[in-house]
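ARCHIVE CARD
Drawer: 12
Card no.: 0347
Subject: one protein chain, sequence and derived structure
Cross-reference: see card 0346
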Amino acid sequence: MKILLVRVSSLGDVLHNLPMVADLLRHHPQATIDWVVEEGYVSLVRLNPHVRKIIPFALRRWRKGLRNPAVRAEIKAFFRTLRDEEYDLVFDTQGLLKTGIIMGAARVRKSGRKVGLANGSEGSGYEGISRIFHTESIPLDPRTHAVARGRLVAGAALGYAVDTPPDFGLPPPETAQRPDWLPREPYAVFFHGTARDAKKWAPANWIATGRALSPMPVLLPWGSEGEKREAEALAAQLPNARVLPKLSMMDAVTLAQQAALAIGVDTGLTHIAAAFYRPTVEIYADSPKWKTEGNWSPRILNLGEKGAPPSSADVIAAARRLLEAQ
């Protein structure tokens, strides 16, 4: 059986789709699984050794240069690669017009199926027009957890129950080389940055938490100039904090993978730490906890709710509990 997964973005969504791979191979061990994903997340999918072929998609870059002959040639090459194989099953678990078009362009065998979502989750960017590319649309409860969505779609299409904890297929921390920029001693990482200001946690809370963890080193990554300034402001009030240099996505993944403790808002890197089963405190301030909470391990504690962020005392208590359990 040849299977193609179409889940192109974003970081957290691609991560949450990874357990589909283990499920499919658990029930169909001889299957081969390919994946179409935005080029920026290829290295994340590559961490799962059970994905045979990754087909990079670069719409974010292509749309800026459609008049450039080299870009148009790259787009043609993408569709040529996409159509190299005939698949038994194509899954679109994102439910957008762009992912539907990819599904529509993929080739299936005579008895092959193209399976996608019949509806979106509450607050998702689901686009109903994507259903025109399906041969089968799977309905889900609008409050289905982000990790469960793809798993349930595949289970419904292939007739198996989803009754095991998610297996992200990620390598254990001890198999990774520790880069020079990481401290040798156990450290905490604060994933404080996120694209939407309403999802952030108050600086005073981060400062109180960092001071409570002292002398444990606290590492502060950033992804934009604004986040860098925020990290520098936090570090100025913490004796044990260090602002990191700008990291590549895979460096940031390593940062999460190696952490003795990760504390973060609802953002992709926090979810990566949880997927690696690192001791993680997830902070919810302006997004619903049911949607992405790490609910597969006692090493992940989820605090707060939309409109009701946790206090620093709550997060400090959770962090100490996770550290004492190690």
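Annotation on reverse: The chain has 13 helices and twelve strands. The radius of gyration is 20 Å.
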